[in-house]
Write a structure and sequence with these properties.
Length: 559
C-alpha cells in the first residue's frame, strides 16, 4: 500500500511542480500576464470593445495602445457613456479576445466618421490616458460593465494601433510559488513512502523468509520453541508521518485555492445604470463654470456664456448683457458657485442631469440651487436653471443615499405637476392657489403685472395680451426630505399692438432694450422667474423664487 500511495504522490507532485514553475516564470512578481498583443488596422477612426468581451470580474486590466505620430487616446468607461459617445459613429468593434478565443473584430458603419468631441475633453471615463507614444490605462474589472475605446488623440480615419492587453490577478505569483511548494511536498511524500515500503519488504524477508515450508507441529500446545521472533508491530511514527503528509497536502490545497483572486462572471445586468456625475466631476464643472461665467459677465459675451449655460438661465444671462449695454450699466460683479450637496440620480441612458445645492453662507444670504444637464455623452455639462431665493428661505434638501439621489415616485411627481399648473395660473391671474405657500416666491408676485403699463392716451387704441407658460415639458423631480422637489421656470409674454397711425414713446431711457426716444407701434416683452418647489406628501407645497428677469424684448417703430 505504501508503494501505491508513493507512486500516486509522485504522479501528482511532478506536474504540480512543473505547472507552478511555469506559472511563476510567466506571471512574475507583479501578478501580471499577457492576454493580447495585436496590431489592428481599420478604415474607421475608433476601435472599441463590445461589453460582452469584458464580462468577467476580479482581474485588473492594463490596456496599452500606440497610434503612432498622431498621438493616442485609450479609455475605459461604462457602456452607457461609451455607446452614447459613439452613437452613429463608424467604429471597429472587438467582439472576442482573450484566454479562450482569438482576437475577433468587425467594422460597424455609422453616419459620422469621427466623434463630435475629442475623448480627452470628457469627464466620465473610469480611466483614460492621452498623449504621444504608447498610452496605458488600468481598470479593475467588477460587476459594472466596461467598454474600451481606442482612437487617435484627435480622432481621424483610418486608424492603425498596436494594442496590448495584460491582466493582473492579485496573488497569482504567490499561488504559483505555493503550487511549486505543494508539488515538492507531494514528491517528498512519495519518496518517503516508497523508501519505507522498500525497508518494510526487506524486514519482512529477514523475519519470515526461512526457505522451508512451515512446520504444523510448531504451533502445537506445550511447545517451548518457535521458528523465529514475531514480526515487529507497525511503528506509531509511520502513521503519524502519513497523517502529517496528508494534513500538509490538504492545507496547502486550501491555501492555494484562496491565495489568488480567480476571475468570475460579471453580473452586468445588475449594473445597467450609472450615476449621472461623480463628486469630482461636479466640482470640476462648477470650478470651470465660475471662471467662465465671471469672464463672460465681465466681457458681456453671449457666445462664451453659451458654452456653460442653456435653457432659461442662458436666456436671462444673454438678455441681461443686452440690457446692461442699452442702459450703460456696469457688468455683474464676480461671484463663486461652490455647492455643498450634489444630487445626481442614476441613469441607463442619456440625457442626464443633477441638482446642486449651496447652503447659505451667512444670515444675510439664502440658499442657491442649480439644475445641470447633459444631452449626450459627447456634450458638456451646462447649467439650465439657477435659483437664488430670498435670504429667509429654508433650504430644500434632496434625499441622497450613498452618494446617489432618488428620483421622486410617480405619485409625488403627479402632485408636483398639479402645483406647477397652479403656479402658472397664478402668474397669469394673480390669484393665489390654495395649499401653496408663495410668501417666498420672489418675482412670481410681479408676473401678473409683467410688461409695460400704458397709462396715457386712448386705451381703446391699444391691444395688450399676456400669456404665461412653464419652461419645458419634462420637469425633473427628486425625492426630498418632505416629499418631492424640483427646479422650474415660468415665463410671461406681453404683446402690445397699437392702432394704425397711433404710436407711443417711453419716458426717459426707455425700458430695458426698448429706447425711450422711439415712436413705437408694437412691443413684445417676456419676463421669467426661476424657482424651487417642494411638495409635501399631503399635497401642500412651498415655492421659493428669485427676482423677475427679462427674457426677451422686441419692438417695431414708426417708419
Amino acid at each position: 500500500m505504501r508503494r501505491f500511495f508513493g507512486v500516486v504522490l509522485l504522479v501528482l507532485g511532478v506536474p504540480v511542480i512543473a505547472a507552478g514553475v511555469v506559472m511563476a516564470v510567466y506571471v512574475g512578481p507583479d501578478d501580471t500576464f499577457g492576454v493580447l498583443d495585436e496590431e489592428i488596422s481599420t478604415d474607421t477612426a475608433v476601435i472599441t470593445s463590445t461589453p460582452s468581451v469584458l464580462d468577467i470580474s476580479g482581474p485588473t486590466l492594463h490596456v496599452s495602445a500606440d497610434a503612432g505620430d498622431a498621438g493616442t487616446f485609450v479609455g475605459v468607461a461604462h457602456p452607457v457613456h461609451a455607446q452614447s459617445y459613439l452613437q452613429d459613429v463608424s467604429v471597429e468593434r472587438i467582439t472576442a479576445a482573450g484566454w479562450r478565443e482569438d482576437l475577433a473584430h468587425e467594422s460597424a458603419a455609422g453616419e459620422e466618421d469621427v466623434p463630435a468631441t475629442s475623448p480627452g475633453e470628457l469627464d466620465w471615463w473610469r480611466g483614460s490616458s492621452v498623449g504621444t507614444g504608447e498610452q496605458t490605462v488600468s481598470v479593475e474589472l467588477t460587476d459594472e460593465p466596461t467598454q474600451v475605446v481606442v482612437t487617435a488623440a484627435d480622432p481621424e480615419a483610418p486608424l492603425a494601433v498596436d494594442l496590448t492587453v495584460d491582466a493582473e490577478i492579485d496573488g497569482l505569483f504567490a499561488t504559483a510559488l505555493l503550487a511549486t511548494g505543494l508539488g515538492l511536498i507531494l514528491v517528498a511524500g512519495g519518496v518517503v513512502l516508497l523508501g519505507t515500503a522498500r525497508r518494510h519488504r526487506r524486514a519482512g524477508r529477514r523475519t519470515t523468509g526461512t526457505g522451508k515450508p512451515p512446520d504444523p507441529a510448531a504451533d502445537a500446545p506445550g511447545d517451548a520453541e518457535t521458528v523465529g521472533p514475531p514480526p515487529p508491530p507497525e511503528s506509531p511514527g509511520r502513521s503519524a508521518r502519513m497523517s502529517l503528509l496528508a494534513g500538509i497536502g490538504t492545507g496547502s490545497v486550501l491555501v492555494l485555492a484562496g491565495c489568488a483572486e480567480l476571475p468570475g462572471d460579471a453580473d452586468g445586468e445588475a449594473h445597467t445604470a450609472v450615476a449621472a456625475v461623480t463628486p469630482q466631476a461636479a466640482d470640476d464643472f462648477f470650478a470651470y463654470y465660475t471662471e467662465t461665467n465671471n469672464t463672460a459677465n465681465a466681457e458681456q459675451d453671449p457666445e462664451l456664456i453659451a458654452t456653460v449655460e442653456t435653457g432659461p438661465l442662458l436666456t436671462s444671462s444673454q438678455m441681461s448683457y443686452q440690457v446692461q449695454q442699452a442702459q450703460d450699466r456696469d457688468p455683474i460683479e464676480p461671484f463663486t458657485v461652490a455647492p455643498q450637496h450634489i444630487a445626481g440620480p442614476e441613469f441607463d441612458a442619456y440625457p442626464m442631469w443633477f441638482v446642486a445645492l449651496a447652503e447659505p453662507e451667512s444670515e444675510e444670504a439664502g440658499p442657491a440651487y442649480y439644475l445641470v444637464t447633459r444631452e449626450d455623452a459627447a456634450s458638456p455639462w451646462q447649467a439650465e436653471l439657477s435659483v437664488y431665493p430670498p435670504n429667509d428661505a429654508e433650504p430644500v434638501r434632496p434625499v441622497i443615499d450613498d452618494g446617489t439621489a432618488a428620483i421622486a415616485d410617480e405619485d409625488s411627481a403627479a402632485r408636483g405637476e398639479e402645483v406647477l399648473e397652479a403656479v402658472v395660473a397664478y402668474a397669469e391671474t394673480g390669484e393665489e392657489p390654495d395649499g401653496v405657500d408663495l410668501s417666498g416666491g420672489g418675482g412670481l408676485a410681479s408676473l401678473p403685472e409683467q410688461g409695460i403699463e400704458i397709462t396715457e392716451g386712448p386705451q381703446d387704441r391699444v391691444t395688450a395680451e399676456r400669456d404665461c407658460s412653464l419652461h419645458g415639458d419634462d420637469v425633473r423631480w427628486l425625492a426630498s426630505e418632505s416629499g418631492a422637489m424640483a427646479l422650474a421656470a415660468v415665463s410671461c409674454t406681453q404683446d402690445v399692438t397699437l392702432d394704425e397711425d397711433y404710436t407711443i414713446t417711453l419716458d426717459g431711457d426707455g425700458y430695458g432694450t426698448i429706447p425711450g426716444d422711439t415712436r413705437l407701434t408694437e412691443m413684445t416683452i417676456t419676463h421669467g422667474v426661476s424657482f424651487v418647489v417642494e411638495v409635501d406628501d399631503d399635497g401642500s407645497a412651498t415655492v421659493s423664487g428669485e427676482a423677475m428677469l427679462p427674457y426677451a424684448m422686441d419692438y417695431a417703430e414708426e417708419e
